[in-house]
Amino acid sequence: MRLLLALILLSAALSSNFNQSFSQINDFTRYYPLKEGNVWVYYVGVSFGQPFKSRRAVTSSMVSGGHRYYYINGLYHYRVDSSSANVFQYYPTGGCPWSNNERMVDSLSMRLNDSAWRNCGTSLFTCIDTNIRTVFGTQRRTKHFRY
Q: What is the number of other CB atoms lying within 10 angstroms of the CB of residue 28?
């Protein structure tokens, strides 16, 4: 009887953690909602020179390899992987050896002090700050990255 009760409690705990993890990933994918017509404005600080604002607009989409990619600023096709919350860029003539025709460019699930390799492991980026800031008059969760 105790074994059965322990198995039921373990199963409930694992199920709860799975649902919580899945819910968190869905929340992260809402951080970067890819949909035609969406626009983002970023404040970009640089080591040398003046900081600047960068505007990104989703203009269209396409499907390749079973994934929908969104065309941003007429330059890049991106997708957010719903199982990992990683952002991938479409590369029709290459990609990483382990990921045909795409490269990871961002990870929406990163937390403070987390690091990840991007562009097939050629550059490292780290989340150095998470905070609540006023953006367009409302309080928003923000992240600050160092590349």
A: 18
Region 3-27 average pLDDT = 41
Sheet strand arrangement including 67-72? 39-44, 52-64, 67-72, 76-80, 86-96, 99-107
Q: Are 67 and 55 in contact (CB under 8 A)?
A: no
3-state secondary structure of 123: strand
What DSSP element (H or E) covers 83?
none
Type of residue found at 72: I
Distance between start and end Cα atoms, the chain: 54
pTM: 0.65
Q: Which of 66, 1, 62, 65 is nearest to 34 (CA)?
A: 62
Residue 83, pLDDT > 80, answer yes
pLDDT score, position 17? 40
